[in-house]
Every structure is written in structure tokens, then in C-alpha cells.
């Protein structure tokens, strides 16, 4: 007999249309947590100094932690654009390892993009 928790886990593991993008905020936090402190500094530097990303320097400087930074990026860019911008930032750092690629792959496939 399955417990409710077992059922929830099984249902969670079943892919559904739109689930990767819908869960992007959690994936983004996982991505940011994969970064070393130095990598995070590099990313923030790029955010401050690249007009393509259009996030005010003062907003970036007010982010004290990864959760605040993720929230700022999602509010500023929205889900789809944040996927693309973060992917590009990871390539610049560079942070192209298998863990990072595996985190990105489902959402990139869902929006018709590649690594």
C-alpha cells in the first residue's frame, strides 16, 4: 500500500507539459547554489557591467544572498528571458559542467532552446 507521500513523489516525477518552466524559480536557486562565491562575484560583475542585462547596479548591490538575486532576476527578466540570460552567464563564467547542463536541459528543451 502506497502512502500519500509515496504517491506525491511518484506524481511529481511524472513529466507534464510546462513543468520545467513552471519550476524554473527552484531550478534557478539550484543553479545559483552550484556557484562558488567567486563565480557569484563574476556573475554579479557581468550583471553590473553589461547593458544587455539591464539591471541597475544599485539593485544588484542590494542583493545579500542568492535568493534575493534570483528574485531580482525573475522580476526583471521574467522566466523565459532569465533562462536565456542565466545560461549565457554560466557560459561566460565559465560553468559548463554536467551538473549545470543537466539543470538547464529540461527548461531549455521546453522553450525550444539548447545549451
UniProtKB/TrEMBL annotation:
Pyrin domain boundaries: 28-114
Tree of life domain: Eukaryota
Pfam families listed in its UniProt record: PYRIN (PF02758)
Record-given protein name: Pyrin domain-containing protein
